[in-house]
Amino acid sequence: MQKSEEATEDIKKEERLRCLSEASFEGIAVHEKGMIIEINRVFAEMFGYYYPEIIGMHALQLTAPESRDLVLQKIVSGYEGPYEAVCLRKDGSTFIAEVRGRSISYCGRMARVAAIRDITGNKQAEEELRKSHSNLSTLYSVSAAISRTISMDRLFDIVLETVTGLDIFNAERKGGIFIVEGSIMKLVSHLGHPDIFLDLHKDMKVGDCLCGLAAKTGEIIISKNSDDDMRHTVRYPGIHSHGHIIIPLKARYTIVGVLYLYLPADFDIDESMLNLLTSIGNQIGVAIDNAKLYEETRALSLLDPLTGLANRRMMDILFEKYLAGTQRSGTPLSVIMLDIDHFKKYNDTYGHDTGDKLLAQLGKLLLKEIREADLAVRYGGEEFLILLPETDLLKASETAERIRGFIESTLPTTVSIGVASYNLKIKKLGKIIKKADEALYMAKKKGRNRVEVAHV
Predict the structure, then answer these.
(1) Can you tell me the distance from the alpha carbon of 372 to that of 148, in angstroms, rounded to the nearest whole number?
(2) In terms of domains, do 333 and 286 share one?
(3) Alpha helices in 184-311 (DSSP H)
(4) pLDDT by residue (tens digit) across 299-318?
(5) Whether 307 and 384 share a structural domain
């Protein structure tokens, strides 16, 4: 009678286990040393087998070759997990699974239960996130390099050094930048080329070879192997097999140049990388356009003759460029407004000529203390303004404090400074300057020779 009750209880336990396993969102299998003795419906569907087919199979038959040693080790050791393994379906396809195991008493004997969860989608999402993070990091690296200068002479070399040094491209430290001037392609920066290469590319025109084709079409050119690409028309003795990526550099829907990189022959590239290259090309194109504008504004003498700083006309022109970049990329933009303390008294005491010398000295000091990407402006009288692209309020206030301290220790005067930044409430130059001016007034009110920050 007692044995009958125990048998009935075992049947009830088994039924409860079956009900629970069928309700699970995971594949569940019971096995003895890897030999499968029971599964739930989800497990069968996950691997593409019917129930009778899978009973009696060994777990390793459901495991992809690259994971079999790992799975066998976990079975033998009784490891409970979790761990990841590549599983093999009946049709030969694979999926990535998270596996957990536990010892149980099953039908009067010891066995192991394994819970399998398909995490292929999670892994793909992680990989996409990793690529996205890598791409953003790459764009930041290029942006940071570009922001170091607005000088046309230095910009090309900085861009080329930065891009050829990025790991994601597996590129050689070899390549160059052409600038488009009408129908002419002018090689303005290059790495790793022999003299014969430079001679052959002196008279390049839009449409010539791969670089000219990219300049003509405005499309990224992919050439996997120079040996069998008939578009690669410029050749010379000693040229080795290589691949090319040629990236058009665009600004305001105009091709301003191309960047070409060398890669190993027969390389592969995916759509994510192509999108990244397009973004990099646009970044560099805008930087070149800004550098050209800078050169043009200098040629137009948009400078204050006394201090050598930009005048307000130049400020208005370049601010629109800075603002467009801020609104497009979401990068910060800040303004520093400074005023010489007691300048009228200084003029009255030492004379206007000495006052003018002080203004000129201050202008030189500001140019020395700011980045090339920043713009120092003679705003009027003894007032000066500095535009700081890609600089938030904290960094701008730190820059302002450094300038204030240096002026105090270097010149026979002190300055009061106000700082403000672009934000959703302060979008226009006039409002940003007004906020900086209000902060400057507060600095004077609090005793001068100090920095105050405008808060919204």
Answers:
(1) 6
(2) no
(3) 195-200, 209-217, 271-299
(4) 667 788 899 899 988 888 88
(5) yes
Instruction: Say yes or no: 252 and 362 in one domain.
Output: no
Q: Residues 425-446, buried b or exposed e (16+ Cβ, 10 A)?
A: ebeebeebbbbbbebbeebbee
pLDDT tens digits along 278-297: 888 888 888 888 888 877 76
Question: What are the residues whose beta carbons fall under 8 Å from the beta carbon of 140, sequence distance 6 or more?
Answer: none
> Which pair of structure tokens corresponds to residue 214?
């990219």
Which structure tokens are listed for 176?
Answer: 């160059």
Provide the token pair at 109.
Answer: 């004997």
Query: Which residue range(s) make up the domain with 274?
Result: 124-294
2-52 pLDDT, tens digit per residue, is: 555 555 555 555 555 555 555 567 899 999 989 999 999 899 999 999 999
Nearest to 256 by CA among 294, 220, 218, 223: 218
Helical axes 343-350 vs 352-369, angle rounded to 10°: 130
Question: For residues 411 and 390, what is the distance between their CA atoms, to the nearest angstrom?
Answer: 29
Cα separation, 238 vs 110, in Å, equals 72
Q: Is 296 helix (H, G, I), strand (E, B) or coil?
A: helix
**CATH number of the domain residue 79 falls in:** 3.30.450.20
Judgement on whether residues 268 and 407 belong to the same structural domain of the protein:
no
**Coil, strand or helix: which one is 401?**
helix
b/e sequence 164-179, b meaning 16+ C-beta within 10 Å: bebeebebeebbbbbb
Q: How far is CA 29 from the centre of its chain?
A: 45
Give DSSP secondary structure letters for 310-360. B-HHHHHHHHHHHHHHHHHH---EEEEEEEETTHHHHHHHH-HHHHHHHHH
How far is residue 24 from each of residues 38, 39, 43, measured CA to CA in Å?
14, 11, 10
Determine contact, residues 164/171, Cβ cutoff 8 Å.
yes
Residue in the structure block whose two tokens are 């993070």: 133
Question: Are residues 241 and 340 part of one domain?
Answer: no
Question: Are 311 and 428 part of one and the same domain?
Answer: yes
Residues 181 and 290 both lie in one domain = yes
Mean pLDDT is highest, among 202-206, 262-266, 447-451, for: 447-451
Question: Look-up: residue for tokens 């994601």?
Answer: 168
Where does the pLDDT of residue 411 fall: very low under 50, low under 70, confident under 90, or very high at 90 and above?
very high
For 435-451, the DSSP string reads HHHHHHHHHHHTTSSSE
Across the strands, what pairs with 116?
A: 27, 99
Q: What is the pLDDT of residues 94-121, one digit of tens each?
A: 999 999 998 888 777 888 899 999 998 8
The pTM of this model reads 0.44
Last residue of a domain, one of 259, 294, 329: 294
CATH number, domain containing residue 183:
3.30.450.40
